Amino acid sequence: MPTQLFKLSELADVRSGYTFRGALEHTSSGDVRVLQIKDLRQNAAIEPDKLIAITWDARTAAPLLQSGDITVIARGDSNKAVLYKGEQSVVATSQFFIVSAKKPNVLPEYLCWVINLPQSQRSLERSGSSIQAISKGALQDMMIPLPTLATQQKLIDLQQLWDEEDQLIVRLQTNRERMLQGIYQHLIKD
Q1: Could you tell me whether strands 126-127 and 133-134 are parallel, antiparallel, or unpaired per DSSP bridges?
Q2: Which residue of 36, 85, 127, 151 lies most exposed, with the fewest beta carbons within 10 A?
Q3: Alpha carbon of 160 to those of 112, 114, 152: distances in Å?
Q4: Are 11 and 101 in contact (CB under 8 A)?
Q5: How does strand 70-73 pair with strand 81-83?
Q6: Distance between the two ends of the chain, CA-based, in angstroms?
Q7: Which has more confidence, 134 or 154?
Q8: Which letter does DSSP use for residue 26 in this model?
Q9: Can you point out the beta strands (E) in 17-89?
């Protein structure tokens, strides 16, 4: 049986991040961490301890990320998706869309993986002259192939192996450069 295609909105809820008024100031005694685009430009994971902390004093409850939520960068050339796996109180700014799987036959890790695929990224319509942005509707309309849970898990496991391989290659290259520098230094001294 061929894999069915679904709009993202059929598999997950999509909401905008929180719009903060004014500049955000770090408060060491803050009770909520704030995720901004700059926090994910270089990182592939949300690291709450590295985010700025604020004291939440709004009249409503903070729209916290839940473990399994996916943050998608809404502005810029790359609309990278990152899965939140933590338990700390984190609020994503309006620079993100938050995707929450709503069907039991969809793994959040799989959804995140599909959103990050080059063909999925290319499918997103971007607008704006200087800073490109995607609309909530464009993200909701993204077509998602939905294989069985077992196949979703196999794809996630395969991606993790590839990621580990990439990390090992980088470490090998770094070690080789250090060894070459050591050899050069030794030969120059002789």
Answers
A1: antiparallel
A2: 127
A3: 13, 14, 12
A4: yes
A5: antiparallel
A6: 69
A7: 154
A8: -
A9: 32-35, 52-54, 70-73, 81-83
Element (H, E) at 8: helix 8-11
Amino acid at 107: L
Q: Report the candidate in 98, 95, 33 with the shortest Cα–Cα distance to residue 71.
A: 98
- pLDDT > 70? residue 128: no
Q: Does domain 4-144 have CATH number 3.90.220.20?
A: yes
Looking at the chain, the whole-number percentage of residues with pLDDT higher than 90 is 54
Give burial (CB, 10 Å; 0-12/13-18/19+) of 20: middle
**pLDDT tens sequence across 66-95:** 999 999 999 877 789 999 998 899 999 999
φ, ψ of residue 82 in degrees (nearest 5) = -135, 135
pTM: 0.83
For 34, list phi and psi in degrees, rounded to 5.
-120, 125
- Amino acid at residue number 131: I
- What is the predicted pLDDT for the residue at 129? 59
**CA–CA distance, 190 with 186 (Å, rounded to integer):** 7
Taking Cα atoms as reference points, which of 24, 87, 13 lies closest to residue 56? 24
